[in-house]
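ugh ok so i messed up the first submission bc i forgot one of the chains. this is the corrected input, ALL of the components this time, i swear. 364 residues overall. if the numbers dont match what u have on ur side tell me asap before i send this to the collaborators (the ones from the other lab, u know who)
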Amino acid sequence: MIERLDLFRAVAERRTDEVVVTTMTATLQWPLVSQHPLDFDFLAFGMGHASDFGMGLALARPERKVIVWKGDGGLLMSLGSLVTMARYGPANLIVLLLENRSYEMVGGQPLPPGVDFVGLAVAAGMEGGGREGSGRIERWETLDDVDRRLPEVLTEPGPHFVVIPVHNSEPLPPVSHSDHAQRVIDLRTALGLPER
Amino acid sequence: MTPGPSATAAVGKIRSLGFTHVLSIPDSESRLLHDAVGDAADLELIVPCREGESIAIAAGLWAGGAKPLLLVQNTGLMEAGDALRGCGLGPKIPLRMLVGWRGFAGAEAGKLPIDSAYTYTEALLQAWSIPYEILDRADGLGAIERMDATAEQTQLPAAVLVARRFEP
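and heres the new structure output, hopefully the right one now
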């Protein structure tokens, strides 16, 4: 199991011009390691839908990789998203599933204990799936796995679905609800699009 | 029974308005439009599993510079309320929606009991302050154009309530 902030640091160090979509507790800790115009805070846009939003972005911007930090609780809230990604997910989409086995943001209530997230992705058709049939499923258990596999995931066609067991022993910064419309405008601007 | 709009003509209207993607959840009333979009080489049909997904994908598409159209039934829109709030109304993303109005035909015919999906549809859109047009006749496809213009002008979600089944 990986300390989440160490994981974030490892990914932030290798990240270049990818869009990074965060949600739930990732929105609190990712900014500790990254302040990038292509960071997009999805908090309060709709529970469980960060990877759906990321998929839409990736479809619209095929020239650019889109990384989504998604929680395991959020995935259970929109489990069909896996099936949709397995059918339509573009090659530039990377979903990094933070597996902490709890609804951490809303009180730490435990998830159903027996859920196998890799197994769910397999059953949804992710392996060899996606728009171009290049979907990949992985599980990274250690920071060595991250160092070894991340460069390939960032460069090879996906969609990639990576399950990463994490824990957190760091204090969480407070929630900051910045203006939602402005977040979207900022993202579009960073992508070189008109504000609206 | 009053005939509904032509699916083929509706695809022409959708195309003329510059939509790039259509996110459709299967529904018997819109089946022919769903199929016609699937046959249109210049429109990308995406069939998510639920309407909340559709809305979030559409929001991402719009944020990335595409122009998506949502094709959902009123019941699905009710299911997707939080996604509509979070990915449309809150961040001011101009989601364009064709909403199948389940229950309209029965209510029009005075058939009892009235489908609650019919009853709450307009009330729900009004509660969300979502402007809507009603498409209830074959020559009413201008409703899509007006809805599109409203969404563009307000930079907020707008809808067309599709009261009749699409015809070929």
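quick check: Chain B has one domain: 7-162. that seems consistent at least. Residues 51-63 of chain B form the longest helix (13 residues).
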